[in-house]
Amino acid sequence: MIYAKITGWGKAIPPASISNDEISNIVDTNDEWITTRTGIKSRRVSHVSTAELATIASKQALACAGVDGKDIDLVLLATCTPSTMVANTASLVQKNIGASGAAACDTNAACSGFLYALQNATAQIQAGMIKKAVVVAAERMTWYVNWAKRDSAVLFGDGAGAVILEASDEPSGLMGTKTGCDTEDRDILHITNYGTDLNKYEAVGPSDLLFEGREIFKRAVTGMSIACDDVMLKANLNLDDIDVLIPHQANLRIIQAIQKKLDIEDERVMVNINHYGNTSAATIAIALCEAVEQGMIKPHANIMSAAFGAGLTWAASYIRWGERVTPIATSDYTFPNCEKTGLELVKDAVLACQNID
């Protein structure tokens, strides 16, 4: 049997950030209000495009794997904040990393996007269609934020993470997965004023990111827990077999609720929402990289991951790690210098939102 082994990993974390105390200068809130409700302490703001975020993460992952861009057969980008719709953003990433001739495609499953993309690329490798793939998740969620509304302004951040998949005889990589979409209440989490349903000749104003927190909480916890149970049952895994849980980083309370349902100790749960906020599709990709860096993921570790996003998409995945937990090499390709603070980067958007609101 052919497996899609993860041989490289990399991330792109923008240098500029906005702390909870700083965001209180924008909307009526404070550190205690945000922290107790979400677990978020700060979020990053990108001064580069989604395509550039994805390029940085992908180049880091390629170096980590010791793979040259020209050997890549597929670039699959998970994002709901593409730099361009036509041509797709993945095509620019493909160009930037030197993967000439590789297939390039964007996929949008919101916060579940990375796991959806991982499933897609894995299936192509297992079918013998391709041998090497870049699966990258990159988001500029702060582009969507309506800075006049507290509930959405405090939640989101920017960033990217990527992995390299290679065909292998070793039983590793994505070993089991369950994806789906609960469309019954898709309107409880959505952006209303974006897309071709709009009249492009009329002024639209700031993005209106709407969500019903309590209903999302219930559906997220239930959906991700059931999906995890399904994957573990099919993979013949017990809870004790799981070495690391990497959940979508949307809300600390949701993470803790899933952790409780799965009865997994704190030291086996990867949490970094306090540093980055919700980076949508990029949260799991970034968390996976940091779990390796922090020593949580050891050789041959069993990893369970789950996500829930707009749509309402959901996913759970069982990943078996390989032997190597250190990079073969590192890349010096990184962010251009940023002269502005996080607040300075969003200043014009904040003023525009406040004036319209």
From TrEMBL:
InterPro entries xrefs: ACP_syn_III_C, ACP_syn_III_N, FabH, Thiolase-like
Domain of life: Bacteria
Annotated ranges, domain Beta-ketoacyl-[acyl-carrier-protein] synthase III N-terminal: 106-182
UniProt entry tagged with the keyword Lipid biosynthesis: yes
Its job: Catalyzes the condensation reaction of fatty acid synthesis by the addition to an acyl acceptor of two carbons from malonyl-ACP. Catalyzes the first condensation reaction which initiates fatty acid synthesis and may therefore play a role in governing the total rate of fatty acid production. Possesses both acetoacetyl-ACP synthase and acetyl transacylase activities. Its substrate specificity determines the biosynthesis of branched-chain and/or straight-chain of fatty acids.
NCBIfam families: fabH (TIGR00747), PRK09352.1 (NF006829)
Principal subcellular localization: cytoplasm
Start and end residues of each Beta-ketoacyl-[acyl-carrier-protein] synthase III C-terminal domain: 234-321
Pfam families according to UniProt: ACP_syn_III, ACP_syn_III_C
Entry remark concerning the domains of this protein: The last Arg residue of the ACP-binding site is essential for the weak association between ACP/AcpP and FabH.
Keyword Cytoplasm: yes
Reactions that this protein is recorded to catalyse: malonyl-[ACP] + acetyl-CoA + H(+) = 3-oxobutanoyl-[ACP] + CO2 + CoA
Start and end residues of each stretch annotated as ACP-binding: 249-253
The protein's name in its UniProt record: Beta-ketoacyl-[acyl-carrier-protein] synthase III
Keywords, in A-Z order: Acyltransferase, Cytoplasm, Fatty acid biosynthesis, Fatty acid metabolism, Lipid biosynthesis, Lipid metabolism, Multifunctional enzyme, Transferase
